[in-house]
Protein 1
Amino acid sequence: MKKQVLISKLLKELINQFSNGEMIPVPELTYSGTCLVESLKVTLSKERQSSTIIDANCGYVYSHNSINHTLFEIQPISTSDYIQSANWIKLTHPDSLEFILKATTAAFKFFHSLPTERHNEFDFVYQHRLLNKNNCYESFILRFYVLQSKIAANSIQFMLHAKLNPLLAPVDENLYKFISIKPYNLFIKSKLLDSKEYIAFTNTEQEIVKLVNKGLDYNEIAKIRSISPDTVRTHFRNINLKTGMHSIKQSCFYAGHFYMY
């Protein structure tokens, strides 16, 4: 019961990030309940992917082009639904729900704290598990970023892009608390989410991840970064400690899905 009360409280907090006290959809975005996707010039759903547009003014979902109908008994969020949709909550892995609500709420509080001129830098990625028709959990990587459009200029829309990635499902339960959020340094300073509650890489570690995934060894990375090979090895150790993996290539392969999306 205590957990249900906590989840309810966290969900209410998340919803408040979108309400602005109005809860009125932006009319320019709506046409017969469907988002004017073509006018946004966005490449939407491909195999194993889905895209959803969310109005930051009210939390309504205007478009959901998705593979969900092939995977789930019910769609987690359907067209013209509201972000508080109970469906995605029912299907979310119970061990992840509390963290997802905390992290997502913190991310949007962080977005609202950013100066307007830095809104375009906002980028938030995390891992989500949803129960499929076969009663197994599918692993998705979800990414929120600000969508620019010429319509409804006074409102902000977020693109929520989801990629099905069963190969990324980690053995270590702790890795489901792995996030990427930008601008990272400002997020750290905001202290909106306790650093002990999530796993994230520093900006330097993110650069190391990208270089390892390009096939470079520690000597080559040392030259590019103008640091000693021993310093690179230290970064390798820290990266492995955060992922719980013993191979730097495995760690960077995993992290690369978040930082290179």
Protein 2
Amino acid sequence: MRVLVIDPDLARAALVAEGLVGVHPLEVRQAALFDEAEVARFSPDVVVIASDSPDRDTLESLREAGHSNTRPVVMFVDRSEPGLAEQAVRAGVAAYIVDGLAPSRVRSILDVAISRFALTQQLRGDLAKAKADLESRKVVDRAKGLLMKERGLDEDGAYRLLRKLAMDRGKPIGVIAADLLAFAGILRGDAS
């Protein structure tokens, strides 16, 4: 396991490493500040941020890094203000622990955060696929409508024609439907 500990306090950072004794293989690096370039270079399995209280710059950096550098982030803070936990979670923090950095708890917290992060990533992927499938279905329905109008087909006949075109060309039916709609638009003069 590769762990990047972001903490200016070396003693507090050492508590994280102490909590991971017995994990093999293990590589722990410590940095004083969150640096997206350092995270990318080290490519840790998990990032642990420990601090007195989370600052808005760190949360903003996490939010920006989360789009391109997705990995679980665990945040241990000594104290928190109302709303900061929610901001941290929105920034991509998988676990936000207030006044709970004890070596005996570190490994279980990281394990849960890594599992939770993997589940969240899977759910995001499933959501993106569902949105793409829905969009493809809308395109197919519009293409069927065009075929029904222009060729005098019923809905089933229009779908069969789209499916045959897709199989003949070795492309997904959504791609064929999008192409059909694009060409129809060109013929109508919609494209400049």
